[in-house]
Design a protein that fits this description.
Elements: E1 2-9, E2 19-22, E3 25-28, E4 31-34, E5 43-44, E6 57-60, E7 63-72, E8 85-88, E9 92-94, H1 103-106
Parallel strand pairs: 1-7
Antiparallel strand pairs: 1-8, 2-3, 2-9, 3-4, 5-6, 6-7
Length: 107
Amino acid sequence: MQLTLSPIRGLPGSATTRIAVERERLIVDGQSYDLSPVPEGGEAIADGDGHPFIAPITRRDGEIHATLRVTLGDDAAPEQSGTAWHVNATDGVVTIPATRHSSEAAQ
């Protein structure tokens, strides 16, 4: 699964978004999204409120492509909002490649 992550700065005390992949299922902050119905060469558009998708979900060459808004928690360096990260996600937890404040720098 190819993910584009678009970070936003969370409110003070907000946690960083948690993402995991299980085959063609994307789990974002505990909410599961089954992306398997997206046809080859087609696209799906998430509707309603509360979902993290900010662009159509597509399938190209058998692989799902999705763009998600992710919240950065208090431990993330502030200058990262507005950049995008591209992640090749396999089954398991997806690491958000944000730069974190080191515990030594905070002391």
